[in-house]
Amino acid sequence: MEQKKIVVKMKQKGLTMDIDKEAFAMALKTWRLRQGLTQEEVGKRWGCSRYTILRAERCKNITWEVAYRMFARLSEELRKENSSE
């Protein structure tokens, strides 16, 4: 199964992050469903609300700090998943 690459770029105007929201949303939702977790369970596990997970999965705007933390957590979870196969 081919996974979409999540692209993260740092722009020169201050500290901003540009994320491919659709690729991130797809990766997050795919991982969550594969794990059999609800949005609320992921939120509790990652220290955010289920609404934050919902917004990310629907490609809505979230702050760059939250996006960075979620990206880091998802990357960590995917690494664990890949190493256990």
Summarize this structure as a short list of keywords or feature phrases:
mainly alpha; two-stranded antiparallel ribbon; 4 helices; 60% helix; globular
Q: How would you describe what is shown here?
A:
By secondary structure, the chain is mainly α. The chain has a two-stranded antiparallel ribbon with strand order 1-2. 12% of the residues are buried. The chain is built from four helices and two strands; from the N terminus they run ββαααα. Helix 1 packs across helix 4 and helix 2 crosses helix 3 (50-57). Mean pLDDT is 83; it is low at 9-13. It is globular, with a radius of gyration of 13 Å. The chain has helices spanning 21-35, 39-46, 50-57, 64-83, and strands at residues 8-10, 17-19.
Explain the layout of strands and helices:
Elements: E1 8-10, E2 17-19, H1 21-35, H2 39-46, H3 50-57, H4 64-83
Précis, in short:
The chain is mainly alpha-helical and 85 residues long. It is built from four helices and two strands.
Question: What value does the average pLDDT take?
Answer: 83
Helical content, roughly?
Answer: 55-70%
Order of helices and strands: EEHHHH
Number of helices: 4
Low-confidence stretches are 9-13
The assigned structural class equals mainly alpha
Query: Shape, please?
Result: globular
In quaternary terms, these chains amount to single chain
* Rg calculated over all Cα atoms: 13 Å
What's the total number of strands?
2
> Strands of the biggest beta sheet: in what spatial order?
1-2
Measured distance between first and last alpha carbons: 13 Å
Largest sheet descriptor:
2 strands, antiparallel
Tell me the β content: 5-15%
